Amino acid sequence: MRFLKQFAVMVVVSFVSGAGVQALGWNAPLTLVAGFAAAALGLVAYAWVVRKTERREAVEVSWKIAPGAFGRGVLIGLAMFGSVIANIAFLGLYEVRGLGSVPGAIALLGFMAAVAVSEELMYRGVLFRIIEERLGTWISLVLSGLMFGLAHIFNPSATLWSSLAIAIQAGLMLGAAYVATRNLWVPIGVHFAWNFVQGGIFSTSVSGQDAPQGLLDGVLSGPTILSGGQFGPEASMYSVLAGVVVTVAFLWLAKRRGNLVPRRGRTAPAATLSA
């Protein structure tokens, strides 16, 4: 019941706020404001439902650690996608034809903030965290990662490969980020930076979704396995490789910190005020 209540609240908040943001038709200033407002609403709703159902403060989204933890996540996301697009460009499969759209980038900034926060609260804050308490870290990582990938199967241009790629590079990686840090700000930062840099700067498709042009007028070409094709760079093997490398690094850190939970073992390590 705790899981159902928390997940239901986050789904409703995500749906309502997401519909509101999309209804603005990519108006730059309105989408920016609405996107950050939706993200704030999601965080408040999550803290409220955790307090009501678990009788504790949701320290995993504590504002005390937000700037530093979110900032570190952003840097990791920037480095990840930077390495991916650099490899694709090295093969001649990504071309910058000129400058793109500043208003488009501004709108995407707000939209991606709402997306990153809502998805992390649902999939890592509720789904992964509660499953981990009963089944342990490894099973929870696999299950939540597969469900995250499956959630993208109905996106435009999605295929079984693109969903599997997202399950590995994002589902597993972002879950590992939470395990290593025991807060949600780091995975939120990684998720936000990864999405925004894709669409808001390099103007590539993000999970197959249509969006306004970002800061650069960039074009992908070549085989899907290398460039990602119509779905975007997330379907590229370079994204999968980057996700695997970062996942291994996070899990190594989690093991070093004693944050891995065995199946039906001790209670999951409490969220901390460090990252």
Secondary structure category = mainly alpha
- The amount of beta strand, in percent, is under 5%
Radius of gyration, Cα only, in angstroms? 18 Å
The strands making up the biggest β-sheet line up spatially as: 1-2
Note the main attributes of this structure.
275 residues, two-stranded antiparallel sheet, mainly alpha, 8 helices
Characterise this structure.
With 275 residues, the chain is mainly alpha-helical. It contains 8 helices and 2 strands; from the N terminus they run H-H-H-E-H-H-H-E-H-H. A two-stranded antiparallel ribbon has the order 1-2. It is globular, with a radius of gyration of 18 Å.
Secondary structure elements and pairings:
Layout: H1 2-22, H2 28-54, H3 66-90, E1 94-99, H4 102-150, H5 160-181, H6 185-201, E2 216-220, H7 224-227, H8 237-256
Antiparallel strand pairs: 1-2
Summed up:
By secondary structure, the protein is mainly alpha-helical.
